[in-house]
Amino acid sequence: MVSKIKCILLDDELLGLKYLKMLCEQLPEVEVVASYNNPLLFLEEQAGLDYQLVILDINMPEMDGLGVAQLLPNKGIIFSTAYKEYAVEAFDIDAIDYLTKPIKKERLQKAIHKAMRLLDKEERVDFLTVNTNKGKAILQFDSILLVTTSVTDPRDKVVWLDNQTQLTIKNMSLDKLIEQLPKKKFCRINKSEILALRAVNFFSYDEITTTLMGDNSKPIMVTLGAAFKTDFLAMM
């Protein structure tokens, strides 16, 4: 079980931010890495911070919390707000919890424990069981480099493994597959492909050069779709 979770706090109201930080410091399972009252400054600096969870307000100037959360696809999100009407939107982007102000210590602790359970589950599961063209198979996450949609049957997905072999997953959508892969290690890069971050060699604004080698002994290059670019850059 994860014993401590690293958090970022974000709230444009300084009194609210100080109160939230005080509550977190009373919880031994929480380590506050940094706190911000400016969402744009946080987004500018977050890539250099080691954290797993963000506890943030929704109504903020310049950029609201929902917009911030959508730029952090591989991080846990807990919203803290005085407004209840954003709850549906919050859970639509897979927020772990939604706290209404004034926040009570016991309610915050419950949300933190929920985040820790989800993180622990993600860290312990390291394989995927799938139906393939060779029968049922167990795929270790660390063995998967690239997943592409089959050109012969779009329902099937071709998996490139780290031993340079390929395996076809039968009748599974990319949406379902990306849900089961670790969010910190894999990213949807276009409408038909998923890439392991460790398979990235170089990238530009619309193209990624991978560590995989094609039949011509040249690196395989894949397209970085415009709709998926923000998530990819945030993870990198």
What do these coordinates show?
The structure is a single chain. It is built from seven helices and 15 strands. Strands 2-1-3-4-5 form a five-stranded parallel β-sheet. A five-stranded antiparallel β-sheet has the order 10-9-8-12-11. A three-stranded antiparallel β-sheet has the order 13-14-15, with no helix packed on it. 27% of the residues are buried. The longest helix is centred in the middle third of the chain and has 20 residues. Helix content is 28%, strand content 33%. It starts with a strand and ends with a helix. Strand 9 and strand 10 form a beta hairpin. It is an alpha/beta fold and 236 residues long.
Name a few traits of the molecule:
elongated, five-stranded parallel beta sheet, 236 residues, alpha/beta, five-stranded antiparallel beta sheet
CA-based gyration radius? 20 Å
Across the major sheet, the strand order is 2-1-3-4-5
**Element order, helices and strands?**
EHEHEHEHEHEEEEEHEEEEEH
Q: Can you give the mean pLDDT? A: 89
Strand content: 25-35%
Shape: elongated
State the end-to-end distance: 27 Å
The helix content, as a percent range, equals 25-40%
- What is the overall number of helices? 7
| Unreliable residue runs | none
**Tally of DSSP β-strands:** 15
Name the structural class.
Answer: alpha/beta
Q: How is the biggest beta sheet arranged?
A: 5 strands, parallel
